Structure formats: structure tokens, C-alpha cells
Amino acid sequence: MKSCILTIMLAAGLCVTTQAGLYNYTYSGSAVNIPDGNLSGWSDSHTFSSIPSVIQSVTVTLNVSGGYNGDLYAYLSSGGALLPLLNRVGVGTGNSFGYSTSGLNVTLSDAGSLNIHGVSSPTSGGTYQPDGRNISPLSSAASFDAGGTATFGNAFGAVNPNGMWTLFVADVSSGGGQPVLQGWSLD
Questions:
Q1: Rounded to a whole number, what is the distance in angstroms from the first to the last CA of the chain?
Q2: Cβ atoms within 10 A of the Cβ of 109, count?
Q3: Which of 83, 91, 148, 187 could pair covalently with 155 via S-S, beta carbons 3.0-4.6 A apart?
Q4: Rounded CA gap, 173 and 35, in Å?
Q5: How confident is the model over 31-65, as pLDDT tens digits?
Q6: Beta bridge partners of 105
Q7: Rounded (5°) CA angle 154-159-165
Q8: Element (H, E) at 152
Q9: CA-based angle 134:137:139, to the nearest 5?
Q10: How are the residues of the chain apportioned to helix, strand and coil, as percentages rounded to the nearest 5?
Q11: Is 143 helix (H, G, I), strand (E, B) or coil?
């Protein structure tokens, strides 16, 4: 049986099939202003077809400038499954507003050594585990203390890789400036 990897990236907007069997999507649109304090957010979808195998791994790259990282909520969904990538990073009992750092350019993967929720200043180009806190971004600060348990593997392991994949990003709290999605990709 041939195995394939589904790859989605948010920066160029095209699907590429390589000889190695990798499937990629990179957003190719203009930078997008994410409305400050607006739960409606922004989304982008891509449909994959003819992927001949099950998902072995999923990696998402996000490049966001400006704003207030503790306000950001982002998820990836496909086939009825949803994985929170960012859920108000830094919010917890000791910090009800989350991290005040501005912007991030990171790769989210189950192979990351740290969960992004606990990283106040993510290294540009660094790889982190997705937040995985599958709670409302409007939950009380104490609700975020339990930690994220959802991973790409358990969220999408049984999902057919063929079909629509959607990235959603919102700034859920007013103030802290305007975040701008510079790009994203899915692998």
C-alpha cells in the first residue's frame, strides 16, 4: 500500500503533487486583515481529490503579523473533524488576556516539542504542537488551564484526505491592534 502525506500551507494558494506523494496547498491571495474583536473571522478552503491513501501526518504553517497573540483563535477542519490550532495563546488562571506578543510565523505539527499555547514569544520559523484546547475561545481563563489534548493525529487520523479542508482565523477580543494573516499553508 502506498502512503501519502497531506500538506497544507497558507501562502500561495495552489495544490502541488510531487513525485514523493506529498500533497500541498499554499494560500496565494493577498494579506488579510483579521477583524479586531470579531468572532466572524476569516476562512480559506481548499478541496483535495485523488489522494490515494490515508493521512500519515498534517502540518500547518501560519504567518500572522500585528495584533495581540492572546486574542487569536484559529482552527483547521475537514470531514467533520476540527482541531484548534491557536486558542487565545497564554490564557489561563494567571493571565486572563493571554500573551501580548504581536504576530507569529510558525509551523504547527504533532512533532513540535512545545504546545503553542504556552509559548509567549514563538521563534520565527519554529515548530510547535497545535494548541488543541477544544473549548470556546470565550471560556473563562481557568478553563484553559486543563491543556490541549487534541492533536492532528487524533483529529484527522480517520478522516478521508479527499475533500474540503478549511482554515478559520479570528481575533476574539477588541483591542491590541489588527492582526494580518500574511499567509498559510497545509501539508
A1: 20
A2: 18
A3: 83
A4: 10
A5: 999 999 999 999 999 999 988 888 888 999 999 99
A6: 63
A7: 105
A8: helix 152-156
A9: 90
A10: 10, 40, 50
A11: helix
For the chain, the residue count is: 187
pLDDT tens for each residue of 4-32: 333 333 333 333 333 334 688 999 999 99
Of 12, 107, 127, 124, nearest to 60 by C-alpha is 107
Q: In the prediction, which pLDDT does 22 show? A: 67
**What would the pLDDT profile of 144-161 be if each residue is shown by its tens digit?**
998 888 999 999 998 999
Query: H or E stretch including 160?
Result: none
Which DSSP helix (H) or strand (E) runs through 155?
helix 152-156
Residue 157 buriedness (CB in 10 A; 0-12 / 13-18 / 19+):
middle
